[in-house]
Design goal:
alpha+beta, 4 strands, two-stranded antiparallel ribbon, Aldehyde Dehydrogenase, Chain A, domain 1
């Protein structure tokens, strides 16, 4: 996910242009790329396997492990597609889930290349 964050920052001008084309948003006001990269960087490091143990019961080892749900369906609205993509996809991938993304038909351009990139990697 850290590589995906680097790709987002590498192509931030193109992503801002795609948002301008699909939503009519001015390129100068676009902050979505940095925000999305921060989310992917954070969950790229927070997603390592973690568990908790307790030795409070004599003769027993109590463990709680976090396990993925399986498949997560995500619907992204039109108004900030890259922000919502990062806020929803990064934690789901960090938990080990498979993600199915449905982007808005009104603003699908900035999210589509990253859906393809994630499919190639995982």
């Amino acid at each position: 996910m850290k590589k995906l964050a680097a790709k987002i920052l590498e192509h931030k001008v193109e992503l801002a242009t795609l948002d301008a084309i699909s939503m009519g948003r001015p390129i100068e006001t676009c902050f979505d790329e940095e925000y999305a990269a921060v989310h992917f960087n954070y969950f790229g490091e927070a997603g390592y396997a973690q568990g908790h143990t307790s030795l409070n019961t004599p003769g027993f080892l109590n463990m709680s492990l976090r396990q993925p749900f399986g498949v997560v369906g995500i619907i992204i609205p039109w108004n900030a597609p890259l922000v919502f993509f990062a806020k929803k996809v990064a934690p789901a991938l960090a938990a080990g889930n498979t993600v199915v993304v449905k982007s808005s038909e009104k603003a699908p351009l900035s999210v589509s290349p990253y859906i393809f990139e994630i499919n190639k990697r995982y």
